[in-house]
Design a protein that fits this description.
By secondary structure, the protein is of the alpha+beta class. Helix content is 17%, strand content 20%. It has helices spanning 24-30, 58-61, 66-72; strands at 3-7, 13-17, 50-53, 82-84, 97-100.
């Protein structure tokens, strides 16, 4: 199973395993990773699951669709590498992915 590392605002790293086909948000929620609220359950309707994709992984996680881009505008401290974790689908190519969770959700 691919491993995803979540780094919180304080620098604490948590690495979890997630099946191919899950989203990064599902991996966080099902492994009790703090910093991902996911109020809408992955429907891309709330912007409470943003992450900052590590620069080394930006090309592999793809680009945000227009709906995701619109929702990211509601997040706090939006950065160039901001993505909604519910929109990043885990595949074998994302084994080792590193994302940072924001200090707080929007």
């Amino acid at each position: 199973m691919p491993k995803i590392t979540f780094v919180d605002a304080g620098g604490t790293r948590r690495t979890v395993e997630a099946p191919v086909g899950w989203t990064v948000m599902e991996a966080a929620v099902k492994n009790s990773v703090p910093g991902i609220e996911a109020e809408c359950g992955g429907a891309c309707a709330c912007a409470t699951c943003p992450v900052y994709v590590d620069e080394a992984w930006v090309d592999r996680t793809g680009t945000a669709e227009p709906m995701e881009t619109d929702m990211i505008d509601f997040a706090v401290d939006v950065r160039e590498t901001s993505r909604l974790s519910c929109q990043i689908k885990i595949g074998p190519d994302l084994d080792g992915l590193v994302v940072e969770t924001p200090a707080r959700q929007g």
